[in-house]
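How a chain folds remains the central question behind the approach discussed here. In the encoding step, the backbone of a single protein was reduced to a row of integers, each denoting a local shape. We regard such an encoding as a compact summary of how the chain folds. The sequence in question and its structure tokens are set out directly beneath this paragraph:

___
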Amino acid sequence: MMIDQKKKREMKKIIDTLKSIKGRHTELVSVYVPADYNLIKIINHLSEEQGTAGNIKDKRTRQNVIDSLERIIRHLRLFKKTPPNGLAIFAGNISDNDSQINIQVFSVEPPTPLNIRMYRCDQIFVTEALEDMLKDKQTYGLIVIDRRDGTLGLLNGKSITELSSFSSNVPGKTTKGGQSQTRYARLRDEAAHNFFKKVGAAANDAFSQIAELKGILIGGPGPTKEDFISGDYLQTRIKEKIIGVKDLSYTEHFGLVELVDKSQDVFAQEGFVEEKKVMEKFFNALSAKGGNKAVYREEEVRKALEVGAVEVLLLSEDLDDAKIEELEKKAEMIGAEVKIISLETNEGQQLKFFGGVAAILRFNI
């Protein structure tokens, strides 16, 4: 599940706030409640931890932990049941003044389901599970193949799932010569062809059922993978999704892991494709004849927002959060789409040069 940009920014602000808080001792409490988990069990567990916290030697740390747990328990009692995606709660003394105590509670209902249960006391709040949600988790198809083995898999976020694996009946090379060698080579090629057909049919079936498949990566030792790709083993619509081909040392599951590791450059480039497309659309609209259907600079874009002319609002990630939120709200009021553009592409740098604010218009103004 993809998280929209607005929710990502909201989550990032919360995470940044939590990460900026440092405890004097191991007194900051982090609690993760998985989706569908019984809140009463969590409350009972935290009540037990209050008793255990009574054994902490340092008086101030002991009291801060006990008070933080109490605040979390009170907060949990406000819920009739666990929210659909679970709950992350953080509590602790955030005061910068040694002589003052300021126990605060931060509650986060995550945008995607939590799958971990955790209670932790530390000098920092534990935010890794929330940070992981901000990372794109698109689905990629994986094919690892040589003449002996073929393995299909899926990459979703960081998770690699093996779908199926195949072993071939392709015989090894022979030392025989003459007609025997020619006949043996023909048998090997026929066996390889049948094996490729088998793997290709399975890949066509598996990947055609995934509507949001971002792309397909193929790898393997030697030239076998190129033979597989160039042959008629994959359907055209599947072959068109191939975004990377990598030389590997392994096949089977180890090959899937190696393929993902060696494809980091492909993933980085794919992340910018959508941005490049929308910026290309902006520049085409800006230079189109017969009327201006794009504007840039904040003042001009605000005018277009006021009259409801904006179709897509383009904002540089370099803008401050307050301005992004303000302009985003104006765009939402007129049903305009909002795209946050990174600085890591030439197009993103050009948008920054335009003042960081631009728009594709529904109609000329």
Notes: Residues 216 and 243 are 6 Å apart (CA to CA). The chain has three domains: 5-133, 139-270, 273-361. DSSP finds 13 helices and 13 strands in the chain.
